Amino acid sequence: MGDERHTSTQGAANAPVPHRLKAEFREPPAMFEGCFTTFYHLSLDIDAGGGRLTDHLQPEWANIRFFCGGGPEAEIAGTRVSGARFVGTGPSSLPCRFTLGPVRMWGVGFLPLGWARFFDADARACANIICDGAAHPAFTRFAHLTEALCDPEADLEEQYAAIVAAMAQAMRPTRDDARIMRVHTELVGGDHASVHDLADACAMSIRTLERVCVRYFGFSPKLLMRRQRFMRSLTTFMLHRGSRWTEAMDDHYHDQAQFTREFREFMTMNPSEYAALDHPILTSFMEARARVWGSPAQTLDPPHEHG
């Protein structure tokens, strides 16, 4: 994706904030198949006097992000970070509100298989948290990457190589690899009406399904199914500017009232409130991701190699 110039309407009197956003997506090597959503680099430039931009990330899988320049002010549920160069987030079912100034950032998104292979903690213990990654025991193993990814003398190829080398050194298989892939595949590509149906499709007991989901996905199977349905609707809405929520709603919602309840639970606001907000970073990023990567959001990525 090349430079794209945008104008948001944030600020004291809804004054325009001209900014340029550039996102580049790098394919993880084949040895990591199923572990990552993508490695991506984001450049945000804001015109002099433009201040900072505020946006809301939707629910997603776990991430590590390295900020060169000003770090973010960000919060998920009751957890907050301010100015950290290395930020870790667990899998989320709630939005992340963040404010960001001019910055260069590397991001690595971990699919559930990636969580299993790179983290020692239960995903549920890290669900809906954002933290200074250098200070949290689940994320500290990646803190050394800050030096390479925030080195102004290093180019993107060198920084990408540093990520690959660090991940190759840290990765280890687990006994649940096949189960994780099966559950993830069914969550993204299946059309299951109940947890029982999902367990049958995965050829495992409900108890085993619950264990795998909580340990590596961060949430119960039922909540994961609801989050998947919600994210399909939200991304459809955001990629079709000017569309109505009724046009974006997933077929599994009985009516708009049910969708509104789900929206409030996952985004902590009504659909109309969300639609009225400016999304200076997220909309552009999702459009670029859909165009380049084929999927607008992490939660919609299947657990197999892109090609």
Automatic annotation (TrEMBL):
Annotated HTH araC/xylS-type domain residues: 178-277
Stored Gene3D superfamilies: Homeodomain-like
Annotated protein name in UniProt: Helix-turn-helix domain-containing protein
Source lineage: Bacteria, Pseudomonadati, Pseudomonadota, Alphaproteobacteria, Sphingomonadales
